[in-house]
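Subject: complex prediction, re-run

Hi both,

The earlier run crashed halfway through, so I resubmitted it with identical inputs.
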Amino acid sequence: MKLRTAFFLNTNKMKFITLIVIITFNTILHSQSQTGLVQYGHKQSMGMGAPIGIDYNANLIFDNENSLYTFAKDSLEGGHIRESVYIEKDKDNFFVNSKITNKLGFQYYVDKENKKLLSRDIGFNYVKEEIPTINWEISDEKKDIGSFECLKASTEFRGRTYTAWFTTSIPLPYGPWKLQGLPGLILEAYDTNKEIYFYFKSIKYPMDSKIKIQKPNSESENKEWITFSEYKKTLINKHKKAIENGRMLIEGFDSADTAEDKYTMGNSYIEIFDNE
Amino acid sequence: MKKILFILLCSFVSFGFTNERIEPISENESAEITLPVKVETYNFPYENGTITLTIFDNGICEQGTVTGTLSTHCDDDGIADYVWSGTICREHIDALIMQFNASC
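This time it finished cleanly. Structure:
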């Protein structure tokens, strides 16, 4: 009798352990299945008034905890690119810009748990900041992107007014570049006149295999992390210097009109800062 | 080395500008030669080096003027190093782009 009771208890114990193992396994499997990869087109037409500018390939890898958006990366374009692009808007207006990629690309990593946004941003600066709070206004307007029904949201963020289309089918708050904080994944976003334009190309979700989402690694380039405020100052100073440099060169030309300093930060960068 | 290359490049541009306006002389038609555009280059000190400027001394825009913005990135880091916005002679655009790129 004693032996039978012991056997019965052991069997129950075994069942309990098996159940725990199954639950744990399922949890791991479930969390793995949440990994996704979105491919976007990343078009920058700053100052052009229409989406006619430089077009990059971009990736967003995400899971339940983090996301990493990358663009202007050599491997995403099939090799290193460095070229001046002449863009004729109409018969009276032209733009000359550069399409340039680099080995690691520009990276934007959202760490949900620690509420940090880590970037390998312009100037190859490693920038650490709190995840910016973006006050989105969600409307009832809907449209389909791929096989996803998306809702429209709009906001003002760092000098530009953005419209975003997000899907609640993937209830994760990520998106292209630094745009995030909606109750679903952003599949398309653009500013006024689509000078900045992130457009959807494809998605794999859930992915069959787990991809490790690696945060930007400043040590790999022997660089220090800087604050967003420091980054902002650096960029403003670089922009001022670039205008001076450009003016010095153009003064040598016999232009029909004198060079005007109407080249704002918005002509060069996605983010436009107040005290430029 | 960069300076030498830049000066050579400027000379090449200057040469191109000087010569493109000379019409070929055909035996059957009256020779019409457009006077070459006067081009000057000079250097001036800038930071730790010098910048060579090319001056196109042509007051007439034969192809009209065009308004544009120009942004040159010298490195791969996304920083615009030379930016400009304004109106120029249409025929000067290529030389302008070359001059901006050569200044990197």
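Residues 51 and 274 of chain A are 24 Å apart (CA to CA).

- K.
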